[in-house]
User: Fold this.
Amino acid sequence: MKNKFVVSALMIILSIGLIGCSNSSASENEKTLVMGTSADFAPFESRNESGEIVGFDIDLAKYIADELGYNLEIKDMKFDGLIGALQTEKVDMVLAGMSATEKRSQNVDFSTQYNHSGEMFVTNKDANIDSLEQLEGKTVGVQLGTIQEEGAKKIQEKVDFKMKQVDTSSTLIQELKTNRIDVAYMDKAAAKGYIKEQNLGGFEDPTSSSPGMAVAFPKGSDLKEDVNKVLKEMKESGKLEELKKEWLEDLE
Ligand code: ARG
Assistant:
């Protein structure tokens, strides 16, 4: 009687121990994919009312992680810190509406492109600024580390305006609405969202020729090929189109 009790107690202890072990084993940890993003960029990534990060890139990343059998962990950081986070391998990949530029390709690897938007100049509704020439003498805001920051510098060679760099694209819109800048230069899909939601004005950049958005990885990462396979499958099955419809269509 007594022995039976001891044996079953031991078995219970043993199995609890085993469960504990398997939960914290290294292989379990390896199955988590850490993604870096900058959640200030609706409809690609932004926080909803409950503080959750949602958007096109988030659904895309979840799908990719799922297909490859990983858990997804999201790290929210400033856009201009994302390349550094990849280089120091603090994150395994970045989805942040990041355009796959030649310059960035020197420091990180990119997947195949999954979306392309272009650029827009966002203004207050009554601003009467609707061409590049009219930027003359104005203050144009850009998000730090973006291709729009680089692009604005190029346009400055032809049109004389002041540039103001800020950390996040939400700050950019704040600056515009409080008249600290006259124009916000940003990604077209993000711009269209703000224009609609906050009743702003704006015009498309006639000169923009930026590359499409892609997933970024540390240089030499094996993950790139796996992700490319999933992207290819998503393009063929119509899943990518479905996500675009869900998040981007109203803005086109
Ligand atoms: N497409 C632009 C770039 O790659 C802007 C991306 C901004 N992304 C963000 N999550 N704030 O530079």
